[in-house]
Amino acid sequence: MQEIMKQRASVLLQEGKVDRVLGWQAGVFVYDITPSVFTNAEDLDHGFVYNDFCGNNLSKYLVKESRKEGKVAVFLKPCDTYSFNQLIKENRILRDKVYVIGIECGGKADIEKIKADGIRGVTGITGEDDTYIVDTIYGSTQVSKSRVLLERCMNCKSKKHVVYDELIGDDGEVQVTDRFDMVEKLEKMSADERFEFWRGELSRCIRCNACRNVCPACTCEKCVFDNDDSGVAGKASADTFEENMYHIIRAFHVAGRCTDCGECSRVCPQNIPLHLLNRKGIKDINEYFGAFQAGEDCEAISPMTAFTKEDVEPGTLHTKGGN
Amino acid sequence: MIEETLIPKLGRVTDVRIDTPDVKTFRVVSPDGGKCFEHIPGQCAMLSIPGIGEAMFSITSSPTNTEYMEFSIKKCGCLTNWLHLMEPGQAIAIRGPYGNGFPVETDFRGKDLLFVAGGIGLAPLRSVINYVRHYRANYGTVDIVYGSRSKEDLVDYNEIIEEWSREEGVNVHLTIDRAQENWDGHVGFVPNYVKELGFDVNKTVIICGPPIMIKFTLAGLQELGFEKKQVYTTMELKMKCGVGKCGRCNIGGKYVCKDGPVFRCDQLDEMPNEY
Amino acid sequence: MRKLSLFNISKLYEMISDNKQLYLPVDNGAGQAGYKKWEYGMTMSQALNTVRSAKDFFFPQTENLVDFKMNGKNIEIIDTRSEAEDFVLFGVRACDARSFSILDKVFLSDPVDSFYKSRREHGTVITLSCTRPEETCFCTAFGIDPSNPEGDISSWIEDGDIYFEAITDKGAVLMDSFQSILDEADESAVETQKTETRKIMAKLPLADFNLDGFGDAALLEKFNSPKWAELSRTCLGCGTCTFVCPTCQCYDICDFDTGHEVKRFRCWDSCMYSDFTKMAHGNPRVTQMEKFRQRFMHKLVYFPANNNGEYGCVGCGRCLAKCPISMNIAKVAKKLGDN
Q1: What's residue A320's pLDDT?
Q2: Cα–Cα distance measured from residue A57 to residue A37, given in angstroms and rounded to the nearest whole number
Q3: Do A170 and A253 fall within a single domain?
Q4: In a shared domain, residues A223 and A306
Q5: Interchain CB distance below 8 Å, B6 and C66
């Protein structure tokens, strides 16, 4: 797959159809992939890689890249295409400056999950069917692929590319998933239990802002958390509760626009399951405003920005949340 | 516990003088009378109003003034806006002195000095000029080229006219950007005026003002035959700690708050160009 | 050298925490380790290192500097400092141990930072050697020996025992306080471990991490290199690297009005953040490229230039593991080092 993608990118560059290609660059180990912009075939040849560690969602970079001179080609996995559509809808990406190549994805791996069993000193990882063979300086071992997928890939919501200019490989189907299972579990907890759960998880937050900076829904030029006049800009808050509010505020800001791409949880250095906050938002929107998937297309108006007479009454929401 | 430079002292503003539409000069003393601390010309202090902000300002009065310290502050942001609304009697938090100051007792001794300033850039230089006037015998001739947008934007105008211009061995050359009715002095930008006046290269030059003024004045001086190592200037960057620890105000490996703000122009050549 | 069977380690923790607060790396339930205050029943994590480095204990994320009370035109300045309480850090790895001496160079240089100094004087560091380093480790490039960590007391775990050796006077005093439960030990097991670990370090992918051409000699050449644009292209500017890094020490000073008083505190800041150098009339570092370049130039060039060649990095590998886009100091050094 990697070679086919490399080839295609080279051809597009050579034919002058695009001026640069946004893809992934190999690192020192097999899993440290850096998103990168390639401008010629030679660079592609040396550095381009596509493997099971290419979890990065490249759509957010297009906000800046599509505003530069010339056209940019980008490789998007199915989940990435939803973010892309959403950004088109919000006028953040200029559609005609981007050439989208949809690529197949069988799920991406999480190196931390692989290492969670105490595996260290990784020198190479190769995959065969459902198994990874992990070579380390302390010996080789095997892990089951399905056990070490990224959190979001564990309940992949769609293998369908919702937008593309061309496709490498076959298109897939929207999946039936149990991605709201954990959310339901949290909903069934008592308010105190749920509070304890989130206070515990969020207590590890170091306010690094990685979640906000990687999130495709967070593209504000002046983020409220960087704005001294907003009252919530603290780099350090008066108490831990105020610290935790950062995440609640952000979840509300992206509600209705979050495509559930899962990047927030992937990048969190403290493994906080941030995606659960956003999934709760999506579940509630589905329940109260009708099934809605942000990024599915470029036209549908988000329930959060449309006011109709069929909208749920505030009173209903209040009684539900106020136990 | 031991002395902590990040914890300020109290100061009290005893006088507020309006210099220009956006510059005021504040006189600050210690609550017990006298100055809050001693300093060298060119050094700065952190002034703050708790809850509003804290910022670094150059001390415009000379250390030879034993009664008070003065700060000439331009209104351009949160804290400075608040300071401009201050009345005499207001307490402020002050800490310092910070920075390396000008080499008034070493490199400047015995030299003919040329001061070139634009707008609020006169503030740090005033500290040196008054120090030199106090210890007159230790220095050579003093030339001052000072310009601003208009007559109303000249800082310390009264002192310049009443004291500096009248002194033996001190030559003042004022200029404004555009002609106006109540001005019969020179009209033109400072860099051009410096070239027009054409100075003897046997001088030590001290420049302070907007970056673009410094850039063109330096070019003009070089045309006249001056070398970069004869020219001193002060830099300004966002500062927080004032002692080279918070990592903010560096240019390359030098911290403007601690290794500066005074630099020689040949030193600047060895530093990365990010200011 | 003396030793203790690991079966009795709880007793050791008890004895230390009777007199001082004891902190050690503990699993935090999300597959990672973090320092926690020891309570009865806690065991030390088996992880190689914690996510947040030990610098938190000497340079906390937030710290009150001074309080003010405002009353009309008057200001009252309230010094809220107090002597830090004695504490012990247990299980600190060699990389973090070295980071303390790097932070000392910043905070203990004139004028001394009294907040940091107080914590440093009241903290005793017990370090622990590494036996199974990660592929992300490259401490040896900075002259750090993971098999023989610096500290007040160094320790090695081998074959069911933990060996201790006091290195400094402060460490000797602490070791005296629990000497009674330790046994005599000969050093052979530890020496063997050291040899083995050093062999492993030589096999790591980053063992050949090369710093030739860095340090102050390279300043302008490295600064003006066109490679920065490429390296910083996809940097998110999130600041994760600066927060997990044991040697990053940039801070901000902010005022917070509680309604009763104004608290002036300092908190971690990051040169990667957009407003780090912003002034009333502009920002000298406008794009992410300038900010990205600043961080690495500081660690690889400016800091060694000002500190006798000591680099501002300890090779702990946290930035390698935690950067969302897998950019890190090793990649930067390699790219800039290539000619």
Answers
A1: 67
A2: 14
A3: no
A4: yes
A5: yes
pLDDT at B198 > cutoff 70: yes
CB count in 10 Å sphere of residue C169: 9
Query: Residue A237 is encoded by which pair of tokens?
Result: 């808050």
Partner-chain contact A206 C46, CB within 8 Å? no
Are A163 and A217 found together in one domain? no
Q: A64 lies in a domain?
A: yes
Give burial (CB, 10 Å; 0-12/13-18/19+) of B40. buried
Do residue C220 and residue B1 have CB atoms under 8 angstroms apart? no
Are A185 and A301 in a shared domain?
Answer: yes
Would strands A72-76 and A98-103 be described as parallel, antiparallel, or unpaired? parallel
- Shortest distance between the Cα of C190 and any Cα of chain B, in A, equals 39
Kindly state whether B272 is in contact with chain C, defined as any CB-CB distance less than 8 angstroms: yes
Judge whether A66 lies within some domain. yes
Chain C touched by A36 (CB under 8 Å): yes
Give which of C145, C208, C239 is closest to C334, Cα–Cα: C208
Question: CA angle, B38 as apex, B35 and B42 as ends, to 5°?
Answer: 115
Please count the helices (runs of H) and the strands (runs of E) in chain A: 13, 8
**Structural domains of chain B, ranges and CATH numbers in brackets:** 9-98 (2.40.30.10), 112-234 (3.40.50.80)
Nearest-by-Cβ selection for A226 from C267, C275, C320? C275
pLDDT at C339 over 60: no
Q: In the predicted model, is pLDDT for residue A151 greater than 50?
A: yes
A27 CB neighbours in chain C (<8 A) are 326, 331
Strand order in the sheet with C262-268: C74-78, C62-71, C262-268, C251-257
Burial class (CB in 10 A: 0-12, 13-18, 19+), B192: middle
Residue A54 carries which side chain, given as an amino acid letter?
C
How far B58 CA lies from chain C's nearest CA (Å)?
Answer: 16
Using alpha carbons, select from C87, C40, C28, C42 the residue that is nearest to residue C60.
C87
Q: Which residue of C has its CA nearest to B56?
A: C279
pLDDT at A318 over 80: no
A266 & A317 share domain:
yes
User: Residue A153 domain-assigned?
Assistant: no
Could you give phi then psi for residue B241, rounded to 5 degrees? Answer: -85, -35
Q: ipTM value of the model?
A: 0.90
Residue pLDDT, tens place only, B114-150: 999 999 999 999 999 999 999 999 999 999 999 999 9
The boundaries of the domain holding residue A78 are: 1-109+158-177
Q: How many angstroms away from the CA of A310 is the closest CA of chain C?
A: 40
CA–CA distance, A261 with A77 (Å, rounded to integer): 10
Q: What is the 3 state secondary structure string of chain C?
A: CEEEEHHHHHHHHHHHHHHCEEEEEEECCCCCEEEEECCCCCCCCCCCCCCCCHHHHCCCCEEEEEEEEEECCEEEEECCCCCCCCEEEEEECHHHHHHHHHHHHHHCCCCCCHHHHHHHHHEEEEEECCCCCCCCCCHHHHCCCCCCCCCCEEEEEECCEEEEEECCHHHHHHHHHHHHHCEECCCHHHHHHHHHHHHHHHHCCCCCCCCCCCCHHHHHHHHCCCHHHHHHCCCCCCCHHHHHCCCCCCEEEEEEECCCCEEEEEEECCCCCCCCCCECCECCCCCHHHHHHHHHHHHHHHHHHHCCCCCCCCCCCHHHHHCCCCCCHHHHHHHHHCC
Summarize pLDDT for A109-122 with one digit per residue, the tens. 999 898 887 888 88
Q: Which of C252, C261, C138 is nearest to C206 (CA)?
A: C138
Does A144 lie in the same domain as A55? no
Domain match, A228 and A301 both: yes
Structural domain tally of chain A?
A: 3
Same domain for A279 and A140: no
With a cut of 90, say whether residue B48 has pLDDT above it.
yes
